[in-house]
Fold:
Amino acid sequence: MIETTLGEVLNDIDHLPWRSWVFVRDAKCISFTSSCLVVDTTDAETGSDGFTPLEVEKRGMVEFVSIQDLKDIIEVLKRSNRDATIEQKCAAAAYYFEYDAFMPADKPE
Structure:
């Protein structure tokens, strides 16, 4: 388990285990400063629902996206914006979470 910010996750995405998931406090209010946990859910002790990692449950956090999904989100974003900022990457991740789709290339932030 790694305690960090979403910005740090996005900056270090290639060094994080692909099967891990990112959990946040409020998935509707995401920014690069959002606190998050990166958890390999295959090895995590589960909470009361038998699915959510216990530490995530204790902290009142919610599932955001997987590391693999974040890699895909960044790859798609870079096709239209090679020099995407951390803010743009966060916006693309938030869009993906809300709409279960990649952010269109012409979508303003």
